[in-house]
Amino acid sequence: MGLKLLNHLAEQYEILIPDIAEWAIPEPLGWEYVYLLSFIPSVFGLLSLSHNRLPYLNILFYGIPLVSVTPVVAAAGYMAQDFISFGTTHKSKDIFLGYPLVWLWFVFFALALQLHLLQLFFALQLRRAWHKTVSTRSQ
């Protein structure tokens, strides 16, 4: 996904990267641009750990559903018809390294969704723990 976006941006700004220019890389889909922003809430989550910064953790907690979970679910819905078609016919129009591309996308969707939901779960646990600490300090 990162390579697709890098190739597209290089073409937009007319930058030639010889090694990438030789490959036949498809255009990135719209959800991939939004999903690229998913590293921003994660950075805020990491920054929140140093001094129990609840505002940074809140950015993670509200940013992950917006820029991580939503694009993955939307992309899965977008590709669902191809996945169902592959399930019934066992034939795919796109093959990557000998595997059907739609199957590989759904493996990615499952792993990404699990990762981001676990990220939300642990962020919620930290919010609860840190909120109790902040409220006891203020008393």
Q: Major sheet: size, sense and barrel closure? A: 2 strands, antiparallel
- Name the helicity range: over 70%
User: Reading side by side through the largest sheet, how are the strands ordered?
Assistant: 1-2
Number of strands: 2
SSE class: mainly alpha
Q: What is the string of helix and strand elements?
A: HHHHHEEH
Q: What gyration radius follows from the Cα positions, in whole Å?
A: 20 Å
Determine the oligomeric state from the structure.
Answer: single chain
Q: Looking at the structure, what is the overall shape? A: flat
Strand content: under 5%
Number of helices: 6
pLDDT < 50 runs, ≥5 residues = none
Termini, distance in Å?
49 Å
* Nearest-integer average pLDDT: 88
Q: How is the topology of this model organized?
A:
Elements: H1 2-12, H2 18-21, H3 30-36, H4 39-48, H5 54-89, E1 95-96, E2 99-100, H6 101-138
Antiparallel strand pairs: 1-2
Explain how this protein is built.
This protein is mostly helical. Helix content is 76%, strand content 3%. A two-stranded antiparallel ribbon has the order 1-2. Helix 3 (30-36) runs antiparallel to helix 5 (54-89), helix 4 (39-48) runs antiparallel to helix 5 (54-89) and helix 5 (54-89) packs antiparallel against helix 6. The protein starts with a helix and ends with a helix. A hairpin with a 2-residue loop joins strand 1 and strand 2. It is built from 6 helices and 2 strands, in the order H-H-H-H-H-E-E-H. The protein has helices at 2-12, 18-21, 30-36, 39-48, 54-89, 101-138, and strands spanning 95-96, 99-100.
